[in-house]
Amino acid sequence: MSTEEEKDFDVFLSHSHEDAEWVEELARRLEDSAELHVWLDKWILVPGEHWQQEMAFGLNQAKTCAVCIGEKTPEGWFKEEIERALNLQQKDKFFRVIPVLLPKAQIVNIDDFLELRTWVDFKNDLDDKRVFHLLVSGIQGVAPGRGPKEEEASKLPQIQVRDELKKLRQYRKEELVDEAIAQEYQRKLLDMDLLKRGDN
């Protein structure tokens, strides 16, 4: 039985060809924002090699398999990949299988085995911070807790406006910007700030 320390990848992204573009964007975010090591066929497979063997090897080298379910029911090699991941989970207590519902996914596309697992639902879009946090937590094998701090995130635009106003005042003092342009920019910044406060 393997342990997590022996694995080279944090997550193997299993998906159908139709969802490749969306899944690649997810892979970028997992690497760039969460600093996870992602196995994605497009990034790993070398042209000319036996891709089925390489994908099976990649699955064995991952701590987690995120099964990305799109609009269509899994079939062909994609379905075999899911079955392989579920078999791995039976043999390896550390291995996790996470169903990931893409924006156009239908719940009916999740088979009986995947239904038994807690899934991550990107029905809105990839920018849903709470859902992304759930996925990262699942990949890392930790409880998600309360999730990202939304209050601090909502204050960020106001902090940025304040900083921009301070910079603008300094530019005016040093006469580095035309007064008419400075006034127009200041008006836009204040409008942004008021609009954000109104949303809250």
Structure commentary:
The chain has eight helices and five strands. The chain has 200 residues and is an alpha/beta fold. A five-stranded parallel β-sheet has the order 2-1-3-4-5, sandwiched between helices. α1 links the parallel β1 (11-14) and β2. The longest helix is centred in the last third of the chain and has 24 residues, at 150-173.
The backbone outline, from C-alpha atoms, is elongated
Show unreliable segments. 1-5, 151-156
Biggest sheet overview: 5 strands, parallel
Q: How many angstroms does the end-to-end distance come to?
A: 51 Å
Strand content: 5-15%
What is the residue-averaged pLDDT? 80
Helix proportion of residues, in percent? 40-55%
Based on secondary structure, the structural category is alpha/beta
Count of alpha and pi helical runs: 8
Overall strand count = 5
Sketch the topology as an H/E string, one letter per element: EHEHHEHEHEHHH
Radius of gyration: 23 Å
Which strand order do you get reading across the main beta sheet?
2-1-3-4-5
Quick summary of this structure?
With 200 residues, the chain is α/β, with parallel strands linked by helices.
